[in-house]
Amino acid sequence: MDPHDPASAKPASSLLRRWLREPLLHVLLIGATLFVVYYALNPVAGQRQDSNRIAITADDLAQIRLAWMAQWQRSPTPEEMRNLLDGKIREEVLFREAMVLGLDKDDTIVKRRLAQKMEFVMEDASALREPADDELRRWFAQNAQRFATPSLVTFRHLYFSPDIRGARARDDAIEALRKLAGKPEQTPELQGLSDPFMFQDFYAERSPDQVANIFGAGFAQTLPGLEQGKWQGPIESGLGWHLVWVELTIPGRVPAFEEVETRVKSEWSDEQRAEAKRKMLDRMKDRYQIVLPEAAPATSDGAVAHAAAAPR
Predict the structure, then answer these.
(1) Structural domain containing residue 136
(2) What is the CATH number of the domain that holds 204?
(3) How far apart are CA 86 and CA 80, in angstroms?
């Protein structure tokens, strides 16, 4: 039969049309299409055969050995190494079976752990360059108050307890101050004049925050305005009333750049790293549509997208 003969080509064309009309061929084509689509949407299924293979490499063994040595400060025995290897294989088997069962879906702990690992990835990705000296100095000038040292005060106090004296506590402190007028810090008149205090009577070089932790913010704010070298008061604290002798006040100051250069560089790095991570997270968030219910508060970046009302 001559393939160039129109008469012989006609039966072949007719046979092709007959094949194309075959229902069995349609079923095979639909099945093949579904097969391709399924494996495109479920690549894990296509890797099922490979997922049944657990390969422990020499690097894995080295990591297992190093982790053991870091904890126990010695090499594992052959039996211990076998147990460690069994544990590694067991962990991998259980992990893969859990993934097959979908146990990772909607699990808060798993989500939190994966989010934490992403934080570590972002931390590594935000590796910083070394700042130039003039750049670091400019940043220090803009943030100098971060490095300011607080004022420090050294003082002694006499305590007048409302629990012991009741409503007379303040009046008794005023009367004691009258007796101590012109007297030195240490004088016989102090004996029996005040009440026992649960903490110290003398405090050396304490910052306002340290004073506030014991006596309260109001007492701490009053101290810097007192004169040195005389009994003054009464000053109220959260515990009662006090007469105070300020021995020394050291004003706070902003140190020179050279005094705190190492700390400045550390805090600059922390700030730059945090900013880099924030930008990375913003770029990630831009790939998603955030949908919140009507009752949800505004997010930290002010973006609130409300869910559409469900159809009734």
Answers:
(1) 107-148+254-312
(2) 3.10.50.40
(3) 10
Same domain? For 259 and 135 the reply is yes
How far apart are the C-alpha atoms of 221 and 240, rounded to whole Å?
16
Is pLDDT above 70 for 209? yes
Residues 141 and 163 in one domain: no
pLDDT of residue 16: 56
Least confident of 15-24, 72-81, 92-101: 15-24
Q: How far is C-alpha 18 from the chain's CA centre?
A: 70
* For residues 173-191, average pLDDT: 86
Cβ neighbour number for residue 140 with a 10 Å cutoff: 22
**Per-residue tokens: 192:** 């029996």
CA distance 157 to 237: 11
* Residue 213: per-residue pLDDT: 94
Burial class (CB in 10 A: 0-12, 13-18, 19+), 139: middle
Q: 85 to each of 2, 52, 60, 70, 155, how far by Cα in Å? A: 71, 18, 9, 17, 64
- Tell me the C-alpha distance between 302 and 201, whole Å: 51
pLDDT tens, residue by residue, 109-155: 888 888 888 887 777 766 667 888 999 999 999 999 999 999 999 99
